[in-house]
Amino acid sequence: MAKILMIDDDQDFLAASKAVLESQGHQVVLADNALTGEASLATEKPDLVLLDIMMEQPDDGIALAHKLRKKGVKIPIVILSAVSKVTGYDYGKCDEVLPCNAFLQKPVSPKDLIKKVEGLLKK
């Protein structure tokens, strides 16, 4: 199956999501901040990135997504965040402000996570 890089500072979310994705046969690489995530992207060569918005800084995920796209990274980026609940702003659309292929609101059900990942990997 696919190699998936998860970048999120929530250790419980990482562990639970990793278990869900591995149950579907995927290899999952974890990073708990944007800097480590960017380094892992270069060394691990994942097929898809799952990226939180708010980590050490409130916009770490958005900044990293922009940086990756500017570097020419073409693999799918899925933003997973509860930021809409925190800020009241609807980040649900992927566009120039949020350069991603999909957005999932946390908490995300295992079924929805698998469906989104599988759909993007098939493209």
Can you walk me through this structure?
With 123 residues, the chain is α/β, with parallel strands linked by helices. It has one domain (3-122): Response regulator (Rossmann fold), CATH 3.40.50. 43% of the residues lie in helices and 19% in strands. The chain is built from five helices and five strands; from the N terminus they run E-H-E-H-E-H-E-H-E-H. The chain has helices at residues 11-23, 34-44, 60-70, 83-87, 110-122, and strands at residues 3-7, 27-31, 48-51, 77-81, 102-105. A five-stranded parallel beta sheet has the order 2-1-3-4-5, with helices on both faces. The longest helix is centred in the N-terminal third of the chain and has 13 residues, at 11-23. The protein is globular and about 30 Å long. The mean pLDDT is 91.
The largest pleated sheet is described as: 5 strands, parallel
Q: How does CATH name the architecture? A: 3-Layer(aba) Sandwich
Gap from first CA to last CA? 14 Å
| Helix-strand makeup class | alpha/beta
What fold name goes in the CATH topology slot? Answer: Rossmann fold
Q: How large, in whole angstroms, is the Cα Rg? A: 13 Å
Helix content: 40-55%
- Tally the helices: 5
CATH homologous superfamily title: Response regulator
